[in-house]
Every structure is written in structure tokens, then in C-alpha cells.
Specification:
The structure is a single chain. By secondary structure, the protein is α+β, with helices and mostly antiparallel strands. It is about 20% helix and about 30% strand. Helix 4 packs across helix 7 and helix 6 crosses helix 7. The longest helix has 22 residues.
């Protein structure tokens, strides 16, 4: 029910991702083209600018207000050019049990950890799962969990699996950590007898690489109680990728030029930012897409299966 965007490549003005395109991320919060549920529970981002002070540390922004009315965000978006961006608009079920608070805004990042993560989806009956998940989270990261979301706990599980969370992981190590997290969650769900659709689309980056996961536990299994049913779970949550050069407004469309063979940038999003989606490719289900820039500036893309 959330929406997220991941970018890695040549510096781009944040306004050209968040506000300007036909389906800009902020517009997706109130007018999504896919999975027609509004995402009004906040906005967060991490953005890396090579020209900024301590360039390895990202700009960080989080607000639990509706992003389309956020003048501070608009002002920053018109000034910051990022070589890497993870941005997220939060959507939640429409009921009074949900906590709308800044500490629940994605992406999540623990102190001293380069890796950040955002999530689109939810784990059914998550409150029951937390006591069984806790033994798999290192104490130094369990104490940093500030919010109430399943997303932050999944992030803690991934970080706890890394050999050195204070270093940037390799693509293989990141894939292994994601697989381990999914396995822990699957085991806990089995112990509790949870067999309900639970989407887990993840967006991860450390400023030098990105990974996007398209996954769902028990797709097609729905609760018997209509009050617990989430209409968005009828469809597999979407995830799209496009590659190229010179992202911007070309011939009336927000897109990149040159195609994948001449690419120097990669953009992943919950849904395409432009009306014309011919240059976008849907990431396969049960897959992790990983991208990192080679020395020649071209992105190396791999797709890894998730079980």
C-alpha cells in the first residue's frame, strides 16, 4: 500500500522524481495509477549528493504529514541533486489501530549503519510475531527499534545478519541477508499458523548500490473475517525498473534516453513515473534485483531468485 522509489546514477534534481512527472512519487500518494489506495501517512527519504559535506552520509528527511502539502520537502527537492535516492510515501490500512508517527516513516537506518531500507506491504498478525523475532535481532539493533512497524523489524533482521553492519555489504552478502530474513519470518509464521497474504516489496541501498525485492508470503490466501481483508492484496504488488542516461523530460515524457546498452543510471519504482511505460520492465515475482555501478559508470544488474 506504500510507494517507493530507488535511483542510482548521474545526479538528478529531486524535484524531477518527487513532484514533476505525471506519476511523480508525491502524486502517487494521493493519485496512484496502480493499486488504487491512497498513501497519506507520511514521507521519508535518504539522498546522497557527492558534492555535499561528508558525501557518504545521506540527506535524511522524514515527516508524518501529507507530502503534497509539505513546503519544506518541496523546497529541498528544488535544491538537492542526488546520485542515489531512496524515497517512500507511507500507506496504511484505513482504521484507528494504525500508528501515524514520524518514527514509523520509512526508510529506516540504524546509527552507524550505511544500509537503509523501505518496505511496501505488511505482515499479517505481526504483533504476535515480535516475541519470536526478537532472538534473531542483535541487541544493539533491537534497542534502536523506535517504531511499531513490521518494516523496521525486517530491517533489523537484515542488518543483524550482515557480517559487519557498519560496512557496505557485497551484493552476495546482501542477498543472503534478505534470504535469511525471509526464512526467519517464514518459520515464525509457521509456528503461529499464519497463512495469509503478506506482501514484502523491499527497497535497499547504501548510496553505492541498490536492491529491490518483489515477494509475497502466501499470495492468494485471505482472512475469513471481512473486516481483516485488505483489497490491495488481491493483486501482486508491482515493482518496475528502467535504465538509461540523462533522466529528464524528453518529448513530453519523463524518461531516460539511450536504453540499457548505453545506460549510466537505473531507476526502480513501485509504479512507473511516466504515462508511457514502454521503457519500464516489471521485476519478476519472488526476485531480488541488484544494481551497482561499474568503474566505467555503467550499472551491473543481476536478478536473484528468492525462495
Amino acid at each position: 500500500m506504500c510507494r517507493a522509489l530507488l535511483y542510482l546514477g548521474q545526479p538528478v534534481l529531486l524535484d524531477d522524481f518527487l513532484f514533476q512527472p505525471d506519476s511523480a512519487l508525491v502524486k502517487q500518494s494521493y493519485m496512484p495509477k496502480m493499486l488504487h489506495l491512497m498513501n497519506l501517512a507520511g514521507f521519508g527519504m535518504r539522498a546522497w549528493d557527492a558534492a555535499s559535506h561528508e558525501a557518504d552520509k545521506p540527506f535524511a528527511y522524514a515527516s508524518d504529514s501529507i507530502p503534497v502539502f509539505d513546503r519544506n520537502l518541496k523546497g529541498l527537492a528544488e535544491k538537492i541533486r542526488a546520485r542515489c535516492l531512496l524515497a517512500h510515501v507511507r500507506g496504511v490500512p484505513y482504521n484507528t489501530r494504525v500508528e501515524i508517527a514520524t518514527q514509523n516513516v520509512h526508510p529506516f537506518q540504524f546509527a552507524g549503519v550505511p544500509l537503509v531500507m523501505a518496505h511496501n506491504g505488511d505482515l499479517a498478525r505481526f504483533a504476535e510475531m515480535k516475541p519470536l523475532l526478537l532472538p534473531h535481532v542483535k541487541p544493539e539493533y533491537a534497542t534502536q527499534i523506535r517504531g511499531t512497524t513490521d518494516s523496521e523489524w525486517m530491517y533489523a533482521l537484515i542488518v543483524s545478519r550482515l557480517k559487519d553492519p557498519r560496512a557496505r555489504p557485497s551484493g552476495d552478502e546482501l542477498h543472503e541477508a534478505v534470504v535469511h530474513m525471509l526464512g526467519v519470518v517464514r518459520e515464525v509464521r509457521a509456528k503461529l499458523g499464519i497463512a495469509l497474504a503478506s506482501p514484502v516489496n523491499l527497497f535497499l541501498t547504501d548510496g553505492t548500490q541498490l536492491a529491490a525485492v518483489r515477494y509475497t508470503f502466501d499470495f492468494g490466501c485471505y482472512p475469513q473475517d471481512p473486516a481483516e481483508f485488505l483489497p490491495g492484496h488481491l493483486a501482486y504488488y508491482t515493482l518496475w525498473v528502467t535504465l538509461g542516461r540523462d533522466y529528464g523530460l524528453h518529448d513530453g515524457e519523463w524518461k531516460m534516453t539511450g536504453g540499457s546498452e548505453d545506460a549510466d543510471s537505473v531507476l526502480v519504482a513501485s509504479e512507473p513515473l511516466s504515462r508511457d511505460i514502454s521503457a519500464w520492465v516489471e521485476v519478476p515475482e519472488y526476485t531480488m534485483l541488484h544494481a551497482a555501478l561499474r568503474r566505467n559508470g555503467q550499472p551491473a544488474i543481476t536478478l536473484r531468485e528468492l525462495h
